[in-house]
Amino acid sequence: MQSFDYIAPKSADEVIKLLAGKNGDARILCGGTDLLVQLREGRRKAKLVIDIKNIPELTQITFDPKNGLRIGAAAASHNICSDSNVSKYYPGLVDAVKLIGGRQIQNRASVGGNLCNASPAADAIPALIVHEASCNITGPNGSRVLPVEEFCTAPGQNALKAGEFLESIRIPTPKERFGAHYLRFIPRNEMDIAVVGAGASVILDDEGKRFVSARIALGAVAPTPLFASDAGDFLSRKDVTRANIKEAARLAQSIARPITDLRGTAEHRKHLCAVLVERALDKAIERAGGQHVQ
């Protein structure tokens, strides 16, 4: 592995100063499960690694009904999944975060790191998109907010500017009759990378028979995770029927741009998009209190 300096600062202000001092040669360590592997393999370079896990506000998970959920960028996946408020209000997020590695990895890996790594196949990102999550970004010019669906710009690349880092992720409090789900297809049962991932969220009317709104997202079928906005918009104000669910799945499938690689063919991935979106919608509808759709 290449040599680098290591610092564990105690505040966000200190992180900003350290990033500025290295002129682009510093890397943020949220958990290290991706970064350390990339440094060892020479896929990324760093003269300084800044470990932010000792900054309390960057590892905290907080929730209140007014402001929703705040996940510090370095909060461990295990802590997110075991938080009672996350489990109660955001089960669709738990679906995805539980898939990030095995037990040992769960205690180190962070959703913030999963997002910043910007893998097209990242499990957390489609789930964050369908939950309307936003990124709180901090840097030398102050703070800004960016929707998660705009954060990944290319494989392994994100929207952070020079000197900026991801401070936290915010997710609004779910509305009444909200449900969400994430699932993926993999060649084996555990600790693998998604061939295709799909997330969906819905809000139903009081009777659970009509969509108020919906959001759908895909992973591993394009250079970045995809927000299938047209597919979700199609369902708005429509009846909860199998025909409408299938059409939304088809619309989501239509924006996929998969490739063929060792894990699957482009044709297979394209087919899976519709299958997984339909299944994700079914579970989201169930969690929103809707009836099973024949």
The number of domains is 3
Name given to the CATH architecture of the largest domain: 2-Layer Sandwich
CATH topology of the largest domain: Uridine Diphospho-n-acetylenolpyruvylglucosamine Reductase, domain 3
Please tally the β strands and state the result.
14
Biggest sheet, open or closed, and with what strands and sense? 5 strands, antiparallel
Q: State the end-to-end distance.
A: 55 Å
Shape call: globular
Rounded radius of gyration (Å):
19 Å
Which structural class should the secondary elements be placed in? Answer: alpha+beta
Strand content: 15-25%
SSE pattern, N- to C-terminal: EHEHEHEEHHHHHHEEEEEEEEEHHH
Instruction: Tell me the strand order in the biggest sheet.
Output: 4-5-10-6-7
CATH class assignment of the largest domain: Alpha Beta
Overall mean pLDDT stands at: 94
Helix content: 25-40%
Continuous helix count: 12
Uncertain segments: none
